[in-house]
Automatic annotation (TrEMBL):
Name listed for the protein in its UniProt record: Penicillin-binding protein activator LpoB
Record carries keyword Transferase: no
Gene Ontology molecular-function annotations: enzyme regulator activity
Subcellular location: Cell outer membrane
Region spans: Disordered: 25-55
Location (main, coarse): membrane
HAMAP family: LpoB
Signal peptide per UniProt: 1-20
Annotated Gene3D superfamilies: ABC-type transport auxiliary lipoprotein component
Membrane topology: Lipid-anchor
Keywords attached to this entry: Cell outer membrane, Cell shape, Lipoprotein, Membrane, Palmitate, Peptidoglycan synthesis, Signal
Length: 190
């Protein structure tokens, strides 16, 4: 206990000591503002290359004649429910397959031969079947499975592929109950 008391008193005594040595204050020099150097002007020595133009495809003109032929196909019943599966891109190039799918759906709706499954119903069915929105249903069996879940009568399965340097769209109208192909058509994609 005496030791603790001694340490405390020593600390208080040392804390009260003031050094009276004459200390010179540190010299203060005012800072000079730096002159900002402006970057040299950029001279247009090289031209910026133009990005490649995106080739626009008029899907309406491509799919309209195919839908006309499909509507007249033998064994196709009018007023039945049709699932328009998203167009598959089997080419090495970039295609706007969503635009192609929308053009097909619009052409079928204008023809008024089938009732088309709505996008919201397809979305809900994909969630229920745990299919991601990125899943392009590359297999016909997946497309038919989705159509069965939606109680659709037909599936329209479409692919775009290259044949001898020429892009083609191929469509197949399939009966959901049996998987039978009722109609098939092909058109050039410009």
């Amino acid at each position: 206990m005496k030791r603790v008391l001694f340490v405390i008193l020593s600390a208080m005594l040392l804390a009260s000591c003031v050094f009276h040595e004459s200390q010179q204050p540190a010299p203060v020099t005012p800072a000079q503002p730096e002159k900002k150097q402006e970057p040299p002007p950029i001279e247009p020595s090289e031209k910026v290359p133009q990005p490649p133009k995106i080739q626009s495809t008029n899907w309406n003109d491509i799919v309209q004649p195919l839908i006309e032929k499909m509507a007249k196909a033998n064994g196709v019943g009018g007023g039945k429910l049709l699932l328009v599966d998203s167009v598959k891109n089997n080419t090495n190039s970039s295609l706007r397959t969503l635009k192609a799918t929308e053009a097909i759906t619009d052409a079928i709706n204008r023809k008024q031969v089938f009732r088309v499954v709505s996008k919201s119903q397809v979305y809900a069915a994909r969630q229920a079947l745990r299919l991601s929105s990125e899943d392009s249903l590359g297999l016909r069996s997946k497309s038919i499975g989705l159509a069965r879940y939606l109680n659709a009568d037909y599936v329209l399965y479409s692919t775009v592929s290259n044949h001898n340097g020429q892009r083609n769209i191929e469509m197949q109208l399939m009966l959901v109950k049996t998987g039978e192909i009722l109609w098939s058509g092909r058109g050039d994609v410009n």
